[in-house]
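Suppose you are handed a protein chain with no further information: no name, no annotation, nothing but its sequence. What can you learn? This example shows the usual starting point.
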Amino acid sequence: MEFVARKQLPLRPAGPDTVAALIAWYDAERRDLPWRAKGRRRPDPYRVWLSEIMLQQTTVKAVIPYFEKFVARWPTVQDLAAAHLDDVLAMWAGLGYYSRARNLHACAKAVSARPDGEFPRTEAELLELPGIGPYTAAAIAAIAFGAPATPVDGNIERVVARLFAVERPLPSAKREIKRLAATLTPARRAGDFAQAMMDLGATVCTPRRPSCLMCPLQQDCHAHASGLAEALPVKVARVERPVRYGTAFLVLREDGAVLLRKRPPAGLLGGMLEVPSTQWSDTLLNVDMAVAGAPVRTEWWSVPGGVVHTFTHFRLEIQVMRAIVPIEMPLTFWAEPDRCQWVPRRDLHKAALPSLMRKIISHALKEQ
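A reasonable first move is to predict its three-dimensional structure. Written in structure tokens, the prediction is:
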């Protein structure tokens, strides 16, 4: 069934008719996503939770292959709870924001430890689980259990800001947008309504060039009526990210193994594997100073160019040093040997390496 956009009619306040129009649109145009229940089946709380954690700060397109790999290997929350954290981190590698993976594993254990081994059904109880904040708790409660909860992600935030013509800039407008969104949340089909809002924001009410003529809420949209759709929501200009610098040491053993080191469990990229490197600081060390803290004492070759990686709060520029060493080469104190391991090159694709470290390895080995 193809959804046909309504003709422009006199503007009306958003309310029950808005909800009904959006649900009708969703029934006809909903996206087919692997974590959504098919037909009249009940949503699986495990799949809803897993998808919501993965979708934080990540696009649907990027998440789908990760989600499918996870549920193929760990079909239930109990399976995930029984997994080794290193295996979870390795499977997550490349998806970013690695604290999510650690919290994912901790949450699976917490759910499995409950008397019924199932996810709680209320927002308040869901908020007590590791890695679940207000948005995720509301999304799980609404989508998995049909509770009249109001999740507000970036897509919903944009739809609501335009629907009610909220001109106050973000992030200060977030509380008002949440309140306005809650006025629309229906008692029935709350999960479908939340997903409909997400789909509308992702496919019709897009950040640039929203397709207002195809929008089922055009008659209700104050921003469209005022010619403000593309201008909303208003966002405060971002502050330019600071730049940090570091030196990475790619040690390649004569048998083809690469030296990797496990990062501390807490902090940025916690628990993941890394190419041993200096600390990331505001200034770039010269080669001699950097090599003084290298993981092995040998002759180092500076790889031309460098690696640039952007994190949420800063931009990182890495110079890369490379060396080939004999099998019996000892590690220095600076290597922190108890956290190091040699990984065969053929097995690097299976290692828990974040995308930054894969970039460094690829850059260091590109002339091999």
